[in-house]
């Protein structure tokens, strides 16, 4: 029983090491985690933010809006208006079965990391196995894509129009107050 508890604790620590939200940063490549922008014409851009499976939908949407506000200011404009908004989610389910070695075998736990994610691998050499647990885990990642039109004052009186300076300031303040400690 003690060995089983130590195994579960070790597995939890290893899994937590791979669990952190996507930082607000440019994506290293198209489709990677972070933000990208594409010019669609004069005063028009598509801004996309892609989060990992630990980054919640609200944060992904806020990061896309923050990038739209920063890009608007960077291009010398005062406001932007949402022309189109699209949210995507991708879910991945994984199943695992674990057994408890009573005696005569050994258990090895290690992390295998690729470019986009880490997996925890449990290798057991046979002994006398007893008990078993089947686990199913679903991970969902989100992507927000905004098509924006930028402009200078006066700002249109529309629900989907944002003052870029005010929005950027508000979202940065929110991000600063909600960072993990």
Question: Explain this structure to me?
Answer:
This protein has 181 residues and is an alpha+beta fold. It has one domain (2-92, 138-177). Helices cover 27% and strands 46% of the residues. It is built from 3 helices and 7 strands. A 5-stranded antiparallel β-sheet has the order 1-2-6-3-7. The chain has a two-stranded antiparallel ribbon with strand order 4-5. α2 crosses α3 (164-177). It is elongated and about 75 Å long.
Fold blueprint:
Elements (H helix, E strand, L loop, with lengths): L1 H16 L16 E8 L2 E7 L6 H18 L4 E25 L2 E8 L4 E8 L2 E24 L9 E3 H14 L4
Antiparallel strand pairs: 1-2, 2-6, 3-6, 3-7, 4-5
Helix pairs in contact: 2-3
Which value, in Å, is the CA radius of gyration?
Answer: 23 Å
Unreliable sequence segments? 5-17
Biggest sheet strand order reads 1-2-6-3-7
Determine the strand fraction and express it as a percent band. over 45%
Mean pLDDT: 81
Q: In total, how many beta strands?
A: 7
Work out the helicity level. Answer: 25-40%
Amino-to-carboxy terminus distance: 34 Å
Main beta sheet strand tally, sense and closure: 5 strands, antiparallel
What is the number of helices?
3
Instruction: Give, in order, the helices and strands.
Output: HEEHEEEEEH
Secondary-structure-based class equals: alpha+beta
Number of folding domains? 1
Q: Which outline best applies?
A: elongated
């Amino acid at each position: 029983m003690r060995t089983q508890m130590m195994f579960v604790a070790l597995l939890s620590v290893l899994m937590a090491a791979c669990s952190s939200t996507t930082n607000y940063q440019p994506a290293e490549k198209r489709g990677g985690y972070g933000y990208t922008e594409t010019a669609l014409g004069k005063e028009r851009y598509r801004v996309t933010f892609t989060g990992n499976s630990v980054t919640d939908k609200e944060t992904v949407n806020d990061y896309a809006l923050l990038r739209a506000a920063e890009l608007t200011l960077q291009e010398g404009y005062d406001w932007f208006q949402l022309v189109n908004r699209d949210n995507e989610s991708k879910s991945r389910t994984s199943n695992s079965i674990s057994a408890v070695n009573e005696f005569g075998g050994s258990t090895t736990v290690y992390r295998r990391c690729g470019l986009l994610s880490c997996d925890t691998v449990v290798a057991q050499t046979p002994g006398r196995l007893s008990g078993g647990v089947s686990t199913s885990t679903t991970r969902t990642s989100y992507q927000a894509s905004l098509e924006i039109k930028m402009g200078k004052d006066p700002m249109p009186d529309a629900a989907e129009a944002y003052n870029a300076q005010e929005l950027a300031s508000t979202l940065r303040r929110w991000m600063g107050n909600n960072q993990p400690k």
